[in-house]
Write a structure and sequence with these properties.
mainly beta, 4-stranded antiparallel β-sheet, globular
Length: 98
């Protein structure tokens, strides 16, 4: 299990994006300062083809897109990104392993 959170760039409002790994599934969510987090499951419904089965860590970065990286137990790193509205247009891509 893992979670990472990033604030919205240029925003003083306190809005944030989070990525969470729970029971082998990766979720990304958006939360306004006064509301609940709206989560999307990246492991289901073909949202991100190529999702690794042995994910053990997750990270999120926000700029002009939301980028989510997943680390596997074998040391491989995969990433995907979406719009700030959490619309997924890309599958997972392997990154050079550490």
């Amino acid at each position: 299990m893992d979670i990472d959170t990033a604030g919205v760039p240029g925003s003083m409002s306190g809005a944030e994006y989070s990525a969470a790994l729970s029971r082998g599934r990766t979720y990304v969510g958006y939360r306004r300062p006064t509301g609940a987090c709206a989560w999307k499951d990246l492991t289901s419904n073909g949202q991100t083809p190529g999702y690794p089965r042995n994910a053990c860590g997750v990270a999120v970065k926000v700029a002009d897109r939301v980028c989510v990286k997943v680390l596997t137990t074998a040391g491989a790193v995969f990433e995907t990104s979406c719009t700030l509205a959490l619309t997924w247009t890309r599958g997972r891509a392997a990154v050079i392993n550490p």
